[in-house]
Amino acid sequence: MKIAVIGTGYVGLVSGACFADVGIQVTCVDIDQKKIEKLKNGIMPIYEPGLEELVVRNYRSGRLKFSTDLGEAIQGAEVAFIAVGTPPGEDGSADLKYVLAVADEIGRKMTDYIVVATKSTVPVTTGEKVRAAIKAALEKRVADLPFAVASNPEFLKEGAAVEDFLKPDRIVIGVDDERAEQIMQRLYKPFQLSGDRIIYMDIPSAEMTKYAANAMLATKISFMNDIANLCEKVGADANMVRKGIGSDPRIGTKFIYPGVGYGGSCFPKDVKAIIKTARQYGYELKVLQAVEDVNDAQKHVLANKVKAYFGDDLTGLTFAMWGLSFKPNTDDMREAPAGVIIDELRAAGATVKAYDPVAMEEAKAHYIFDKVTYCKDAYDALVDADALLLVTEWSEFRIPSWQAVGKLLKNKVVFDGRNIYDKNYLKSLGFEHYGIGSK
Ligand code: UDX
């Protein structure tokens, strides 16, 4: 079986490499020639555990190819996945120009029946737009070739994407053509999912599923952050409350960890986009608007705690920051709470020394530039710092040498943005600990 994956970003590259790994002939296509050359040489555009090994192994075996030639890649392919970016436009809605440009090119270059499946997160009704774009391109060629469109949203988590792809908890396929359904069935067979975990539905429902899933997860987080903020006021401990409610299987233990707010490439973008879609249809998604508002405010909570301790004017003070990426095991800095915290500390006159095991290059390149001093390791960041801020819960920060931390910091004060440290233990070592959702 042969397929093409168009777009070698995060979703496309992981999907392409994983399909190749189960024996499918995959050509990953991108318009960025440099990126394609790098991939051929085993250089990954993103950091994702297990990805490099998977790409190199499958490239060497010849099952995975990289190309800038979409026309050639789709020759003989049964499925073409569209996995290009859908950046938020100025008004918050997903910009479809890349998706529709790919659809147009497929229409211009296809020579046989093909299933065109979108993997990019796209608003409801995009399936129809993709179909129309392909049809229009075919009509221009005066070609009457059959094709099908499908929606196959991905649910990959950054940092665990390869594993999520190879062992998915469900696969959602929106399709309205029997032949296409059979092809998709064959494609996903190697992933050995029991029947009820491959869920077939109509295309708009599949498109909606992706947004509803991310919006529900974002809602859990914002809900818990809201409760955590109230816990602080009334003298309750949000971590105890979390355990107390999570033991009810209807609520569940996952995604109810209070923290410094959610970031990343999905939740912020998707919550905005679905609110926008609703408005286009004259409907107000009030819960999700609140989810977004709570999250925006939550990114300021840690810096506010610093100000409550040291005063609003932080001139002359230096803070050590452990973690920059929006979550561990990724170098992704998109919408990372660290950016908001750094801006706020600097605006109050402070200096920030940061260390992140993987994301410093990314931070330097795009987002935080020279706003912080980048340090060679976690302890280096503590030298001459007035307090420690834990922003991303990388494993290596979990059990530091508190003796060394205490010696290096000017004050034994820890602002724990992810509640990874035991307050009582730190207290017994003479530290002051400020977490999220408890006094
Ligand atoms: C998410 C979805 O999980 C995935 O299914 C979808 O395909 C893409 O979006 P991702 O953005 O990689 O994946 O990150 P995820 O692990 O879900 O975390 C999102 C954010 O929520 C992070 O900033 C994380 O720190 C935060 N979070 C998560 C919390 O603050 N509390 C929690 O309890 C869980």
UniProtKB/TrEMBL annotation:
NAD(+) binds at residues 30, 35, 86, 121, 158, 269, 334. This is UDP-glucose 6-dehydrogenase. Catalyzes the conversion of UDP-glucose into UDP-glucuronate, one of the precursors of teichuronic acid. Keywords: NAD, Oxidoreductase. GO terms for molecular function: NAD binding; UDP-glucose 6-dehydrogenase activity. Transmembrane segments: none annotated. It comes from the Bacteria. The keyword NAD applies. One of its GO terms (biological process) is UDP-glucuronate biosynthetic process. SUPFAM superfamilies: 6-phosphogluconate dehydrogenase C-terminal domain-like (SSF48179), NAD(P)-binding Rossmann-fold domains (SSF51735), UDP-glucose/GDP-mannose dehydrogenase C-terminal domain (SSF52413). The active site is at residue 266.
